[in-house]
Amino acid sequence: MLNFEFKNPVKIIFGKGQIVKIAQEIPANAKVLLLYGGGSIRSNGIYDQVISALAGFDVIEFGGIPANPEYEVLIEALNVIKKENITYLLAVGGGSVIDGTKFLSAAALYQGDEPWDILKNKIRTDKGMPFGTVLTLPATGSEMNSGAVITRASTQEKFGMGGPGLFPEFSILDPLVVKSVPQRQLANGITDAFTHVLEQYMTYPAQAFLQDRFAEGIMQTLIEIAPRIQKDPADYEAAANFMWCCTMALNGLIQKGVPTDWSVHAIGHELTALFGIDHARTLAIIVPGHYRYNFEHKKEKLAQYAERIWNIQEGTADEKAELAIVKTESFFHSLGIDTKLSEYTGDYQGTAEKIAKRFTERGWMGLGERKSLNPDDVRKIVELSY
């Protein structure tokens, strides 16, 4: 097991009817900017619950944060923060709204001239404007971590950011919100969380036995509840487990003491930036080709995954490992997720070269758990994903 440090200060308030507790978590004298997305919270009753809980607070609203939080839109919100002297941020939404709020938390206190530099130059945020979240769409785990990913439409770029100053002070997780989540987003959420686990698990053995079991437990639970939650999003038991799996998949716990990959995310972000494909679906596009291209380095964990997750007990280690990739792709298909870039766009030719060029220009020369993947490797992986 590798050396590690772990601190996660986020207060989780989980369960039915917990949105009312917002008022207990925000300072009484706070001037609050309420941030949300396309307005679904108004039709499913969550908005009314939040507004009721904020009675007595000075609240200004900013809606319209898109599914891939766009820099240009967030700059509009940043101007509101500065003009209105906002002191506290409240994100009500899924990962996109929460990620956008994290950017605003950092940008509100940033001393530089160009907030985009926080992303472009990977500036670590040690102190941000305080914020809390009300999760409405389980998927990214952003409600319990300190990372965010932001898109800039004008340049077709998507970059990550983070730092210890970007943990939410609290996050309210009410599984009742899942019943209003559209089927497409349920499939995305399951796929996103599952792939988050794979990025931290599918590397090489580090003799971190408990971490492996944590990761396997999340994946097994997602596989078990996937058909239930897709059949009936109002199934509270399934919804609660789905929501907690998504949070646990990326709150930092399962990556401690083990090597992690994240190449799938780095490449997938480019597909979203170039084509607007849902984040989770870009991950499903890249995973099979990535694992086949890096088969020799990953086959020990792939074989373990085959045995423990898919109950594949016969065959050689190589055969088990290859079948595990097939099973993973089939799982994505069972959710209604396509796994080839050509199934999303007819304009895919040249994409591999374009992404490899971008990685070269940025100096991204050592991706993966072994820091060994260069832009030409990325090109080959993307080509396998066509």
TrEMBL record:
CDD domains on file: BDH
**Recorded GO terms, molecular function?**
alcohol dehydrogenase (NADP+) activity; butanol dehydrogenase (NAD+) activity; metal ion binding; methylglyoxal reductase (NADPH) (acetol producing) activity
User: What keywords would UniProt list here?
Assistant: Oxidoreductase
- InterPro entries xref list: ADH_Fe/GldA (IPR001670), ADH_Fe_C (IPR056798), ADH_Fe_CS (IPR018211), BDH-like (IPR044731)
Which part of the chain is the Alcohol dehydrogenase iron-type/glycerol dehydrogenase GldA domain?
9-175
Which family does this protein fall into?
Answer: Belongs to the iron-containing alcohol dehydrogenase family.
Gene3D superfamilies under this entry? 3.40.50.1970, Dehydroquinate synthase-like - alpha domain
Domain of life, source organism:
Bacteria
Q: What is its EC number?
A: 1.1.-.-
Any GO CC annotation of this UniProt entry: cytosol
Record domain Fe-containing alcohol dehydrogenase-like C-terminal: where:
188-382
The organism encoding this protein is Pedobacter cryoconitis
For this entry, the protein name equals NADP-dependent alcohol dehydrogenase
